[in-house]
Design goal:
Elements lengths: L1 E8 L2 H13 L8 H13 L10 E9 H7 L6 E5 L21 E3 L6 E3 L3 H27 L4 H4 L8 E8 L1 H11 L13 H17 L1 H9 L6
Antiparallel strand pairs: 1-2, 2-6, 3-6, 4-5
Helix pairs in contact: 1-2, 2-8, 6-7, 7-8
Enzyme class: transferase
Pfam families: Thy1
Pathway: Pyrimidine metabolism; dTTP biosynthesis
């Protein structure tokens, strides 16, 4: 998974200014770092969310299509643009589970977990996906060579092929995404994300932590609950 931060306009200071304008008006520009930390912690603890909408992150992400589709379940405060198989020939980049990726489902829907598979299970999964990808790619190329439109030819490609998209979000929507798509012992409400989207979310969180350290610290402190 490849996650790049394209641009950002999000700071701890902006969160504080947005919050203080409600009580002190134009003097909200005045700063006090110690008070800023307390204010952000208070906002996260008591879930005063609107100040965290003042800012933005834009990420460029390359991931399998099944991860992209999970991403687009997140709609509030998230904007997307994705490469189109109608307008360009897609590249033969496919996802194959790594050896350490848990393969065996244990339990039932809503309560299940995953555990590592045997070598035989990993081998079957790896070889089966590679074979399916090779067959699908050959069919795709055959149709393109015969003059079939890209928008028709792409229909044979599997959801394991990579796609690239841009997503822009504010700090509040990013925290909501992270609360659902990461797994952490610090979380008040446990989440059980699919491994592949968590791989993306973990990289996004590193950018969030670096650029908004006070907000991120308070987010973790108060149970990783979005305000």
């Amino acid at each position: 998974m490849d996650v790049g931060l394209v641009q950002q306009l999000a700071t701890d200071e902006m969160i504080c200014m947005a919050a203080r304008v409600s009580t002190i008006g134009r003097n909200a520009l005045d700063r006090d770092e110690e008070k800023d930390q307390g204010l952000i912690s208070f906002l996260l603890r008591d879930r005063h969310g609107s100040p965290f909408e003042h800012g933005s992150f834009t990420f460029r992400i390359s991931a399998p299509i099944f991860v992209v589709r999970e991403f687009m379940r997140h709609r509030a405060g998230m904007s997307y643009n994705e490469e189109s198989g109608r307008y360009r020939e897609l590249e033969p980049v496919f996802y194959v589970p790594a050896g350490e990726r848990p393969l065996v489902q244990v339990g039932k829907a809503g309560q299940y977990d995953f555990k590592p598979g045997t070598f035989e299970q990993w081998f079957v999964a790896s070889e089966s996906t590679r074979t399916a990808y090779a067959t699908a790619w050959e069919s795709y190329q055959n149709m393109l060579a015969a003059g079939v439109a890209r928008e028709v030819a792409r229909s044979v490609l599997p959801v394991g092929i990579f796609s690239t998209f841009y997503v822009t979000c504010n700090p509040r929507s990013l925290m909501h995404f992270l609360s659902l798509r990461t797994k952490s012992d610090d979380a008040k409400y446990k989440s059980f994300p699919q491994v592949e989207i968590q791989m993306v979310a973990d990289q996004m969180e590193e950018h969030f932590k670096r650029l908004m350290p006070t907000t991120h610290e308070a987010f973790v402190k108060h149970g990783r609950v979005a305000p």
